[in-house]
């Protein structure tokens, strides 16, 4: 989706 | 695992609220309760559910287990439960199925279902404890109305929170619209109050499609809490009894 950030870039993988 | 819920309605509503966002999920069971964390397919939103052991009576979980469940299957089975049925979830060690029983409180009717479990390899994200710059608590029906009304005009909404209040603004092909709310205490019915706590002004833009989806949880709680900080995901929280909760995180739109 254009201009839409991904949640995974904000929360680190455990 | 053995977990008995006084009212099947709670689980029915939780699953209804998240089933269009996430499909296959692990229900992680341990002695503190039943938790679920899952991202939607496009990795824009994250669902985090916690049903604390105190929400069940009794609750017993001798060993940590992950129950991989397809929510469409769970919805089919939960449709067989009346809202006021007593619901019991049971699973053995290393289970192939989860067992659900629905007991009618006023008759001798007992129904019992098994759902086949799936092996789900799900990424777990660490959600940091965040001191949000703005926290807005408002009636969940009000938030539903705002997202529904603005989604008719636009795909995205700008949420601005200042000491004046919170403003939801959208711009679309047919025109634009906005809804502003001020801090407001309803002395007759506190559930209708709008509480705003702010440490610094915030302005972020979000996809309305996801917010409309989150609002399917409005039946779970009279109140919803929106937590915002610049450049971090929005937290939309529906509190349940016994400190249980259903939380949605939404990544902000970037650009401009």
SSE topology:
The complex is a heterodimer of chains A (14) and B (256).
Chain A: E1 12-13
Chain B: E1 2-5, H1 8-18, E2 24-30, E3 33-39, E4 45-52, E5 59-60, E6 65-70, H2 71-78, E7 86-90, E8 97-103, E9 110-116, E10 125-126, E11 134-139, H3 140-151, E12 156-162, E13 165-171, E14 176-181, E15 195-198, E16 202-207, H4 208-214, E17 223-228, E18 234-239, E19 245-250
Antiparallel strand pairs in B: 1-5, 1-7, 2-3, 2-6, 3-4, 4-19, 7-8, 8-9, 11-15, 11-17, 12-13, 12-16, 13-14, 17-18, 18-19
Describe it for me?
The complex is a heterodimer of chains A (14) and B (256). Chain A is mainly β. Helix content of chain A is 0%, strand content 14%. Chain A is rod-shaped, with a radius of gyration of 9 Å. The mean pLDDT of chain A is 85. Chain B has 256 residues and is mainly beta. In chain B, the strands form 3 sheets. Chain B has a 9-stranded antiparallel sheet. In chain B, strand 13 and strand 14 (176-181) form a beta hairpin. Chains A and B meet through strand 1 of A and strand 10 of B.
Q: What is the count of β-strands of chain A? A: 1
Judged by helices, strands and strand pairing, the structural class of chain A is mainly beta
Percent in strands of chain B: 35-45%
Low-confidence stretches of chain A: none
Spatial order of the strands forming the largest sheet of chain B: 6-2-3-4-19-18-17-11-15
- The Rg value of chain A, from CA coordinates, equals 9 Å
Sequence of secondary-structure elements of chain A: E
Biggest sheet of chain A: strands, sense, closure? none
Query: How many helical stretches of chain B?
Result: 4
Number of strands of chain B: 19
Give the N-terminus to C-terminus distance of chain A in angstroms. Answer: 25 Å
